[in-house]
């Protein structure tokens, strides 16, 4: 039996220590721990990497602490638009959704796109039509209402400003969520979900649902889930870049991840982080911001839950 591992993240960015209360820090670490245990237990019981990453992300989507699912930020119109993607490294099958509203767990819909449609990426009204065909419940806006999120939006409403998950001017950190896993058969998978950026306009889509930019998995190399300044992760095709460095330059998972986060993304003025796992169960979780909500667990006994460096 191969070593199996899972890593999860809840976003990277400006996590100002002084603004993080001990109570809040405990809440974040507890939410990460719950998601980590859910995913790890699936792997431990012989489940697939795809199952593990989906369930771990669902757990994070159900928490109001993170900018995905229930905790999604408000758009310029005061609504919620969510994106998600999942990829199976064994088959290279992938599913993604973008600009969807009212769906409690966008990652579940992304998996259904992967397994129950002929397509990879569905967006907007079409994605919602697909969800309704599969009898998804469309939640009321009240399900996604969060007092902090609403205040955050009111501060910049009717302006041309928008806030990334990790803007300096925010006094709390909320982020994209993601999971990567390697199962007992050495198969890898990645899943990423987000509510985007506060006050976003014109149907803006970030890197999270884009295969190769914010999410990627390939048994030849690794599985990657990204978080950070989405526009730059798209331009740098960051998730695929890590896999590419492993495949074509022979770098290790850690070397490739570090090269991308500490050098390549910075060269184009992007910031953020990623989590990655390879088919040997190795894990990498680099970030070039002040912090990244992250956790990982491997069958060799390694376990880590952290926010700052």
Protein architecture, described:
By secondary structure, the protein is α+β, with helices and mostly antiparallel strands. Helix content is 34%, strand content 23%. The protein is built from nine helices and twelve strands. It has helices spanning 22-44, 49-61, 106-116, 124-133, 141-144, 147-156, 230-235, 238-249, 253-267; strands at 5-13, 82-88, 94-100, 121-123, 177-182, 188-194, 215-217, 222-228, 272-278, 283-284, 291-298, 303-308. The chain has an eight-stranded mixed β-sheet with strand order 4-3-2-6-5-1-11-12. Strands 7-8-9-10 form a four-stranded antiparallel β-sheet. Helix 1 runs antiparallel to helix 2 (49-61).
The tally of beta strands, per DSSP, is 12
Percent in strands:
15-25%
Helix/strand structural class:
alpha+beta
Outline: globular
Total of DSSP H or I helical runs spanning 4+ residues: 9
Mean pLDDT: 91
Report low-confidence residues grouped into runs of 5 or more. 165-174
Major β-sheet strand ordering: 4-3-2-6-5-1-11-12
Q: Strand-and-helix sequence, N→C?
A: EHHEEHEHHHEEEEHHHEEEE
Helix content: 25-40%
| Span between termini | 32 Å
CA-based gyration radius: 17 Å
Largest sheet: 8 strands, mixed
């Amino acid at each position: 039996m191969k070593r199996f591992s899972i890593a999860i993240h809840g976003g990277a960015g400006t996590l100002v220590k002084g603004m993080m209360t001990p109570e809040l820090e405990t809440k974040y670490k507890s939410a990460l721990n719950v998601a980590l245990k859910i995913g790890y237990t699936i792997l431990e019981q012989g489940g697939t990497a795809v199952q593990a990453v989906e369930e771990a992300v669902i757990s994070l989507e159900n928490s109001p602490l993170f900018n995905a699912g229930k905790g999604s930020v408000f758009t310029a119109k005061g609504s919620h638009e969510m994106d998600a993607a999942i990829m199976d490294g064994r088959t290279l099958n992938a599913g993604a959704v973008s600009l969807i509203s009212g769906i409690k767990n966008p990652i579940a819909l992304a998996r259904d796109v992967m397994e129950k449609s002929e397509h990879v990426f569905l967006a907007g009204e079409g994605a919602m039509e697909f969800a309704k065909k599969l009898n998804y419940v469309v939640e009321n806006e009240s399900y996604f209402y969060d007092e902090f999120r609403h205040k955050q939006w009111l501060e910049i409403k009717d302006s041309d400003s928008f806030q990334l998950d990790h803007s300096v001017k925010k006094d709390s950190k909320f982020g994209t969520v993601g999971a990567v896993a390697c199962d007992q058969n050495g198969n890898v998978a990645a899943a990423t979900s987000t509510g985007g950026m506060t006050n976003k306009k014109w149907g803006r889509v970030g890197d999270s649902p884009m295969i190769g930019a914010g999410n990627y998995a390939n048994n030849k190399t690794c599985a990657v889930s990204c978080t950070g300044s989405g526009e730059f992760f798209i331009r740098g095709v960051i998730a695929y870049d890590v896999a590419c460095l492993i495949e074509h330059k022979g770098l290790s998972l850690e070397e490739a991840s570090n090269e991308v986060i500490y050098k390549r993304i910075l060269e184009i003025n992007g910031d953020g982080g990623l989590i990655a796992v390879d088919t040997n169960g190795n894990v990498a979780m680099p970030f070039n911001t002040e912090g990244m909500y992250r956790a990982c667990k491997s069958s060799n006994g390694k376990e880590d839950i952290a926010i700052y460096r």
